[in-house]
Amino acid sequence: MNVWQAQMDLGELAKGRFEKGNPTFVAKRLAESPAETIRLMESVCERENMRKALRRVEQNGGAPGVDGMKTTQLRGYLRRHWEKIKASLLEGNHKPMPVRRKEIEKEDGGVRQLGIPTVLDRLIQQAVAQVLQEFWEPTFSDFSYGFRPGRSQQMAIEKARCYVEEGYTHVVDIDLAKFFDRVNHDRLMSRLAQRIGDKRMLKLIRAFLNSGILVGDLIEEPGEGTPQGGPLSPLLSNIVLDELDKELEKRGLRFVRYADDCMIYVRSQKAGERVMQSVSRYVVRKLKLAVNEAKSSVSRPWRVRYLGFRITRIFGKTLVVLHEKSLRRFREKVRAITARDRGRSVEALVRELNEYIRGWWAYFRTGKSQNLTRPLNDWILRRLRAYVWTQWRLPRTKVRELLARGVHSNWAYALGNSRKGPWRISKQSPLMQALPERHFTQTLGLVLLG
Known about the structure:
Strand content: 5-15%
Largest sheet: 4 strands, mixed
Number of helices: 20
Number of strands: 10
Order of helices and strands: HHHHHEEHHEHHHEEHEEHEEEHHHHHHHH
Helix content: 40-55%
Distance between the termini: 42 Å
Radius of gyration: 27 Å
Shape: globular
Structural class: alpha+beta
Strand order of the largest sheet: 2-1-4-5
């Protein structure tokens, strides 16, 4: 029995006490049920919930936390220690370990600081998130798309496109400065306590928020923020920003939010400036968050990058197209993978390239992006031909390889002894004959766009 079914069993819906968005419906009723059989922490530790969480953690993989344990070791660890772990959770005594700090570069410059929990804490966070998701999901805004089941970035950008098509041709982009690092713990816990009556659950979430960050040999206790990198952080961020969603809905504004990226669509520049001022004031004063004024703006949709896309009008049609920065980022990544000084086998190179291409194309696959597939595929193949040419190194090796692949001897000797660089050689027809597209796709298993 899941939590939502439990709510149904309690008869709250039948009594008319629950309506979508009604904050008076509280999960405390579950924790205080007469038979005490429906408790949040018991739901977290329930066998099927934990199995689902374990599969998710193993599937996601990821780097080890501060204890060095890998996801592949977690199942065996649980076989030996699960009863002790379960007891500590049910008694409200589980103490999470500090998260390990990891910095990754952001596309627009700077770094994003991640907090990597141990795999055991990732498991517990995932199990908690699965239970709490059923509480909050029915009450979240219809205009929130991030980290929610059945919703995606593509749905968010399509909603934005519809706004523009309806005539809302100015966009208010309010940038929340270091949102995940600035979440106020007390406000978050107060909001959670409105629906959670199981004090063990509240204590556990507070413990995750205060577990600290290991930097070198020291543990930092920031006192605010929900470190990115754990399964619970996305849900907590949605709970925090749901308050903003409800405020924007109350004002009758057209908006789309994905995680901390929120765009508000209005009909004029003047209206946009007015909305920017009032919403920024609400974010700072009410939500206790910071607004990055340098990155916030009122602009036109075709000048703004949102979730890697931009919205434009072509021949009277409102379309979603790939943003130039996203295309540039793709090329930079492929260049890095196929750099000719890497010294990896072409087979290993193709495997790495496939992983990136699959993920990138699954996200950026739009009708307009289809026009880019052939030029980009030709460019990728040329990069690979240049890489293989560099691997052949010596002129006699190049001549031998060309001859073996059916290139005429005159062309093989001329090309093999040429002083032109690999990139110029890569577009020569003899090399394209020796290394056709099917060599990479069929023999090496290269995945191309489209």
